[in-house]
Amino acid sequence: MNKLMVMVEIQGKPQPVTIEVPEARLDAVLQAVRAHAGLGDSAHVFERDKDDELDSSLEGRTGISVIAHRCKRVDVHVRFEEKVLDEKFSPSATVLRVIRWAVGKKGFNLDSDRQAKANLMLPNTDSPLPKDASIGRFVDGSSCTVVLDLTLKDFTNG
């Protein structure tokens, strides 16, 4: 038997938890994650920074990082200057991935100097979101939507 360590980020919980699944089988992992998440059988389970729900073979793997979320897609609204752009992401998409979209050609099409300074923030806050965090972490409990502000402020010196 091949046990699997699963780091689970659960919607609405501040810290991920690690659970041990006795067998590296998809059905066993989904059952364990959904039971631990408390979101019921309708919870969507994504491997970290993947677009589609977990459905691949886990054979030979000893660890995996997943996100359990009630939303299959998150409607992300990014505000910059006078404009707002919208895109849908899986809840497991990282903040960095959303930044890359927002500053790129399909987003606000910023030059490389401005792209390097880009960060995302929740409205009415003064610190950037961690770039390695999943975007699903910032979804309001009652919707599958998040509004973010794109900023070019320099946060390197506090």
Provide a descriptive summary of the structure in words.
- The chain has 158 residues and is α/β, with parallel strands linked by helices.
- The strands form 2 sheets. A 4-stranded mixed β-sheet has the order 2-1-4-3, covered by helices on one side. It has a 4-stranded mixed β-sheet with strand order 6-5-8-7.
- Strand 5 and strand 6 form a beta hairpin.
- The radius of gyration is 17 Å and the shape is elongated.
- The termini are far apart.
- The model has no long low-confidence stretch (mean pLDDT 91).
The string of secondary-structure elements, in order, is: EEHEEEEHHEE
> Which strand order do you get reading across the main beta sheet?
2-1-4-3
The N- to C-terminal Cα distance equals: 49 Å
Helical percentage: 10-25%
What is the CA-atom radius of gyration, in angstroms?
17 Å
Judged by helices, strands and strand pairing, the structural class is alpha/beta
Low-confidence stretches: none
Biggest sheet descriptor:
4 strands, mixed
- Average pLDDT score: 91
Q: What is the helix tally? A: 3
Proportion of strand residues: 25-35%
What oligomeric state do these chains adopt?
single chain
Inertia-based shape: elongated
Q: How many beta-strand runs?
A: 8
Concise overview:
The protein is of the alpha/beta class and 158 residues long. The protein is built from 3 helices and 8 strands, in the order ββαββββααββ.
